Amino acid sequence: MKYCIGIDVGTSGTKTLLMDQTGRVIKTASAEYPMMQPQNGWAEQDPALWWGAAVKTLRAVLDSFDAGQVVSVGLSGQMHGLVLLGEDDRVLRPAIICCDQRTTEEVDDLNRLIGKERFVEIAANPPITGFTAAKILWVQKHEPELWAQVKKILLPKDYVRLKLTGTYATDVSDASGMQLMDVAGRCWSGEILDKMGIRPDQLGRLVESPEVTGSVTPEASRLTGLPERAVVVGGAGDNAASAVGTGVVREGAAFLTVGTSAVLFGHTRQMHLEPEGRVHTLCAAVPGEYHIMGVVQSAGMSLRWLRDACYGAELAAGQPDLYSRMDDEAAAIAIGADKLLFAPYLMGERTPFLDANCRGAFFGLSSIHTRAHLVRAVLEGVGYALRDSLELFRQMHLTPEQVVLCGGGAKSPLWKQMLCDIYGLPFAAAADSNGGAYGAAILGAVGAGLYDSVQAACDAIIRITERTQPDAAAGAEYERYYRFFTTLYPTLHERFDALAAL
Length: 502
Description:
The protein has a domain at 3-246 and 432-466: Nucleotidyltransferase, domain 5 (2-Layer Sandwich). The protein is 39% helix and 20% strand. The longest helix has 25 residues, at 371-395.
């Protein structure tokens, strides 16, 4: 029996998984680390934390195991981060990570420098604050002496690759979120690099997700316990890896993950563009193919915010299963929460508005409403925001037949049925819920030659264990409120801008 490792370098922690060649998970381990916010809207991390967490979790999963049987390592990770290295691979500054929103001016700079329409033609998406290109411009503008020292630009998971293999490489699914690529050509864009003052040799080699990028170095072997002969494949950005981990690797397949943020992800053989950039078009982890995704910034984050704000006594008492209690309270409230709606824009929004200034709002609040109504409204509001992504998919002629649900939100029976009813589509759940780490391990199995293709590996490994059908009557009731929900942002967006300017 041969074994594969998957490492998922997330924003809050790293998860490492050991599986056998049939897809059976042997062991997992996780390690958390902090995020730094030196100013409002900024988000940074020390790359040393990622490598330390990778070493710790690799040692944990390989403890009491014959590591010589491990043939491959796949990498998944948070997208859009900016890791800058100088001489001898020295980290020059904390990484600016995906949720950082400091680059509003730099987005405007990119639109002037290249032109929004031309930028979309090349990068498949307009300039976006959270993506890497605008962060590079910010460093060039605000830290020019540091920029002059930059030898290499990497993404978060690819820093871990460097420490494992000594190679500079990135896969196309992750790199297409940097906005430095010709996405249709699956190569770096000479036009964008030239206009941004970036040398091609400052970037890693571009590879497809199952492609081998190197093998474990003697030093990395000593630190982690991995065998030197284990190959390390390109891997994928977190959502592209999760797609592999849930079997979403063919035309029309889709998954919905509800965690801190939420993503509706659809796989497609051909590249589809949404000219306004309201959904993102990126390379898929399947060689030569693509995916589109809509993003709600504050999904589970909205529910956690409400928990912290309204359930303080229970938190202080250490009450277990508090989210289950919130579910129970919300389930006692009828659809529509007695005419209370919630706009879940606590951290601005990506789909469908690309608006860093919009903010959360309760609409219709009255003296009859209890905290149970607030919970119900938050759950529904996130569902309506996610429905916006589905509507854009439909406009692009990419309507899924069913949706695989994963992430923390999948653990709530109430939220699962609610989302199913709001979408009006059957939902499914995969047997394994390890997301990006599982997908990364599967990509490693393909790279090691255990399977002929990503699709063949998923066909052999992924099992669907649960299905949820939409309730038509509930769906019709949600539809009434969804249509009203769609009027909230157009009504408020000018007020959001005015609020930001105060």
